[in-house]
Amino acid sequence: MSTEQYGQELAAISHHQTEATNARFMVFQALATVGIGHEQADDIVAALEAGAVAGAHTWIS
Q: Where are the chain's structural domains?
């Protein structure tokens, strides 16, 4: 992999991490708006993330 390709990969990873963080923050805000506390919201978000990882793993397999 060339230095340019490596830089592009890092930029793409950074972009996806930023998007994921923004989406996670939006979910926490939405859950707080409807009165769900931080601990329960954290459990819900963790379950969503685990499901996404499991789904991606299944798709790749």
A: 3-60
pLDDT for 18 beyond 90? yes
Q: What is the average pLDDT score of the chain?
A: 91
- Cα-atom radius of gyration of the chain, to the nearest Å? 16
pTM for the model stands at: 0.73
What pLDDT, on a 0 to 100 scale, did the predictor assign at position 44? 95
Q: Print the SS3 string covering the chain.
A: CCHHHHHHHHHHHHHHHHHHHHHHHHHHHHHHHCCCCHHHHHHHHHHHHHHHHHHHHHHHC
Alpha-carbon distance of 40 to 42, in angstroms, equals 5
